[in-house]
């Protein structure tokens, strides 16, 4: 029997692929056989080298996803340079922290535009291509704050709750067209995004005390879930928000 997790011959776009979770997912998909279009506003040299190191093709597409201007071009450029598009991972995201009573319109718009608006329009652009091809895989990156309220991160919570809803809506519309849409909800992962929490001794301890696994996630912990959702093994998985959280939500 062939390996149901094999991604040989597939092409994936991964946004925010220069670091953290995006880099780890790009490397995991490549290790499973996919070629990678690494998208971001910062150069992805390290990621390209890691992907090429496991024998896959890698290209960098520069795009600032704070607006939707680059979105249509990303799908076209990926198909032009890598020949096809099978998998989209919407990973690029930002967070802004402030008390709700002091939260600014700028901090609201920046987070919603990057985490939610660009995610939707990139799903739309990739979805059009995948529907025409009769198959495709979209994986959005949600959060524990797709399930919980959080604190001092109103636009982030709104964006990630929105990502969860959007994932289900798109799954409903596209499941019968051969396109699955799911999300990974990472728990607390040691990346730039959580540097402030890791550095705050009290918050760090309270977070660790609640994680049954007893440690922060490494970005690589997200790789297996991404390979699964991108693979034939997940053919009948639609609209699921897969928590990869060391047990955080179970507590
Ligand atoms: P990270 O290390 O800060 O990575 C975020 C990525 O998004 C970087 O590649 C960043 O590029 C890119 N990005 C941000 N704004 C962008 C823009 N306007 N245009 C293009 N790319 C942009 O954080 P991470 O933890 O790996 O986050 C990845 C995703 O996981 C995010 O959606 C985040 O919300 C989500 N998440 C993280 C955690 C966690 O605990 N770390 C938990 C749940 C969900 P630059 O390097 O150029 O800024």
Instruction: Count structural domains.
Output: 1
The chain-level structural class is alpha/beta
The second-level CATH architecture is 3-Layer(aba) Sandwich
CATH superfamily: NAD(P)-binding Rossmann-like Domain
Q: What portion of the residues fall into strands of 2 or more residues?
A: 15-25%
Task: Report the C-alpha radius of gyration, rounded.
Answer: 17 Å
CATH classification, class level: Alpha Beta
Determine the number of helices (DSSP H or I, runs of at least 4 residues): 8
pLDDT < 50 stretches: none
Helix content: 40-55%
Q: Roughly how many Å apart are the termini?
A: 38 Å
What value does the average pLDDT take?
Answer: 97
Numbering strands along the chain, what is their spatial order in the largest sheet?
3-2-1-4-5-6-7
> CATH fold name, please?
Rossmann fold
| Small molecules (ligands, ions, cofactors) in the structure | NADP nicotinamide-adenine-dinucleotide phosphate
Major sheet characteristics? 7 strands, parallel
Order of helices and strands: EHEHEHEHEHEHHHE
Shape: globular
What's the total number of strands?
Answer: 7
């Amino acid at each position: 029997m062939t390996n149901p997790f094999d991604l040989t011959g597939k092409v994936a776009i991964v946004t925010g692929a220069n670091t953290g979770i995006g880099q780890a997912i790009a490397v995991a998909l490549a290790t499973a056989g996919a070629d990678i279009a690494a998208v971001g506003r910062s150069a992805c040299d390290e990621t390209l080298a890691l992907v090429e190191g496991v024998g896959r093709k890698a290209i960098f597409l520069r795009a600032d996803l704070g607006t939707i201007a680059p979105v249509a071009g990303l799908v076209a450029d990926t198909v032009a340079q890598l020949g096809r598009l099978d998998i989209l991972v919407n990973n690029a995201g930002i967070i802004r922290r402030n008390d709700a009573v002091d939260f600014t319109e700028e901090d609201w718009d920046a987070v919603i535009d990057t985490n939610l608006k660009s995610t939707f329009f990139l799903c739309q652009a990739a979805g059009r291509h995948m529907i025409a091809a009769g198959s495709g895989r979209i994986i959005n990156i949600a959060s524990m704050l797709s399930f919980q309220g959080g604190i001092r991160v109103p636009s982030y919570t709104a964006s990630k709750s929105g990502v969860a809803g959007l994932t289900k809506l798109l799954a409903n519309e596209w499941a019968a067209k051969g396109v699955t849409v799911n999300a990974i909800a990472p728990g607390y992962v040691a990346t730039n995004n959580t540097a402030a929490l890791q550095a705050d001794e009290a918050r760090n301890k309270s977070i660790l005390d609640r994680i049954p696994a007893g440690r922060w996630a490494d970005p690589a912990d997200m790789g297996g879930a991404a390979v699964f959702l991108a693979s034939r093994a997940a053919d009948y998985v639609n609209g699921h928000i897969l928590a990869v959280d060391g047990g955080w939500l179970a507590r």
